[in-house]
Amino acid sequence: MTAPHYPTIAECIGNTPLVRLQRIRVPNNNTLLCKLEGNNPAGSVKDRPALSMIELAELRGDIHPGDVLIEATSGNTGIALAMAAAIKGYPLKLIMPANMSQERKSAMSAYGAELIEVSKEQGMEGARDLALRMQSEGVGKVLDQFSNQDNPEAHYRSTGPELWRQTAGQITHFVSSMGTTGTIMGVSRFLKEQNPDVKIVGLQPAEGAAIPGIRRWPEAYLPTIFEAARVDQVLDITQTEAEQMMRRLAQEEGIFAGVSSGGSVAGALRLAEQVENATIVCIICDRGDRYLSTGVFDPR
């Protein structure tokens, strides 16, 4: 008898379910499929690039045992990096805006990361500036998800191939919220190589919306991994439609996800009004339990 293979926690990253909606109506004979990235061990799509950035940096000799790692994060990358750093044995300093949810902060600390906060007004731009300043002062090494090609590479090697396999090559549209843009860049590259006709749709917050995990970046802070040519269409998502769809997903589909995931489905349904007989895939990037303290799930 062959001895069983017992995986490590790192081996459990990826190969997440792709599920169809059952009760929310999808128009025009379209199929809408949701990639449940909250099923990753640390609870989000960011598990993929977090481990990838550390492992590939090790292979290149950019980091070594005992090095202190630094990263600016709005939440999910920080949690995922805290898990990956714990797996690999690296000290980790995470810098994030103070107005992020308490669940996110507590999860980072639970994995052993040191949390450094900047003000809500400084935001992610201020967090990124502080991370680079700490690196220049010799405190540690910044992985920099915003300019690190290992971020989209993780999705090129895992998320994209999974979607192609799970849809048997029938995917016609891919919809993803855009934060660092690593997910949409890596998946777009892979899917376009398989079928150039696959349409890639990115989501950004409408003016005035504050949706955790997705951004409308000032030009000076636009992630350098972003290539506009890899995105066919960009949709603006309002705060209201993202939060309403997030609550509908939980109450009508049993999919407990965060605000940007609600925006992702809302954008996919808006797209479904414009096309017919399409197979539309959207990313459910994390779980809803890390937003409970914000009140977004409270009865309306």
Distance between the termini: 57 Å
How would you describe the shape?
A: globular
β-strand percent reads 15-25%
Would you give the CATH topology of the largest domain?
Rossmann fold
Q: List the strand order in the largest sheet.
A: 1-2-10-7-8-9
Number of helices: 8
Q: Helical residue percent?
A: 25-40%
Catalytic activity: O-acetyl-L-serine + hydrogen sulfide = L-cysteine + acetate
Protein name: Cysteine synthase
GO molecular function, one term: cysteine synthase activity
Organism: Nitrincola lacisaponensis
SSE map:
Blueprint: E1 18-20, E2 31-36, H1 47-60, E3 69-72, H2 76-88, E4 92-97, H3 102-110, E5 114-118, H4 123-136, E6 141-142, H5 150-166, E7 173-177, H6 182-194, E8 199-205, E9 233-237, H7 239-253, H8 259-272, E10 279-284
Parallel strand pairs: 2-10, 3-4, 3-6, 4-5, 7-8, 7-10, 8-9
Antiparallel strand pairs: 1-2
Helix pairs in contact: 1-2, 1-5, 2-3, 5-6, 7-8
Describe the structure.
- Pyridoxal 5'-phosphate binds at residues 76, 179-183, 260.
- It catalyses: O-acetyl-L-serine + hydrogen sulfide = L-cysteine + acetate.
- It comes from Nitrincola lacisaponensis.
- It is an enzyme of class 2 (transferase).
- One of its GO terms (biological process) is cysteine biosynthetic process from serine.
- The chain is an alpha/beta fold.
- The chain folds into 2 domains: 9-40 and 158-291, Rossmann fold (3-Layer(aba) Sandwich); 46-142, Rossmann fold (3-Layer(aba) Sandwich).
- The protein has 8 helices and 10 strands.
- The chain has helices spanning 47-60, 76-88, 102-110, 123-136, 150-166, 182-194, 239-253, 259-272, and strands at 18-20, 31-36, 69-72, 92-97, 114-118, 141-142, 173-177, 199-205, 233-237, 279-284.
- The protein has a 6-stranded mixed beta sheet. Strands 5-4-3-6 form a 4-stranded parallel beta sheet, with helices on both faces.
- Strand 3, helix 2 (76-88) and strand 4 (92-97) form a beta-alpha-beta unit.
- Helix 1 crosses helix 5, helix 2 runs parallel beside helix 3 and helix 5 packs across helix 6.
- It is globular and about 55 Å long.
- 48% of the residues are buried.
- The mean pLDDT is 95.
